[in-house]
Task: structure prediction
Amino acid sequence: MNDNKNIQGITLIELLVVIGIMCVIGGFVYPTITDWQTNKNIERDLQAYTGLVDYVTNKTNAVGGTGMIYCEIKDENTTIVSYKISRYFVKPNASNALLIDANFTNNIIKDPRNAISGSPAEDPNHNILSGKSNFLSNICLNAGVINARGQSGINGVSRASTGINAFIHAKGATATLVGNNLSGDDEYQDHPSYLIRTSTTRGYSTINRKDYSSGQWECAEDWYSDIKGDKNPCYK
Result:
C-alpha cells in the first residue's frame, strides 16, 4: 500500500504566481501578434488589389476590349472593390479621357457581381478586399478604366490630370483623401501605408510605402533592401 501522506497540491500562492507570470508574458506577446495580424491584413489587400489590376489589364488585352475597376463604399465598415470586362474598346477621347458609355455596358462579358444575358451572377458579393484594412482611392468617386492598349485613367477625367491611385493602410486610422493626397494615415505608424499608382500608358502598377519620418512616399522595394529607403518614389 502506497503512502501518499507527503504528496501536496498546488497552493493558492503558487497558482497566483503562475497566473501572474502568464499575464506578464501575454502582455508582451499579444501586442506582437496583433501587430503581425494587422500587417498581414494590409499586405493581403495590397496583393489582392495589385493582382486585380494585373488581371483586368491582361484580360482586356486578351479580348481586345476594356476593363473597369470600381469601388463602392457601403458604410464606414464596408468598402467593395470589384470589376467588369467588356469587349468594347474604349479609347481616349478629345479630352484625353477614357469614358464608359452604353457600348461598353452592352458588351460586358465578365461581371462577377451582376447577371449577364440572363445568366446568374458568379458571385453577387464579390469583393477583393478583406474588410480588415482601410482602402481609399479615386476609383471610389469614379471608376478606373483600363483598355487593351494598357491605357488607363479615371472614368471621364483627363489622363493628364490623374491616373488610378489607391491607398491601403491600417484599419481604424482616420485618414482622408483629397484629390491624390492622403492625410491622417500616420495615426498608426507601427503599420505600413501603401500607395499603388497605375500607369496611364502601360496599365501596370508601382507600389510606394509611406516614410512617416519624412512624410514622403518611397518605392516599396527599397524598404525590403534598405529600411530607410532611398527617399524616391517608384517610377510609373
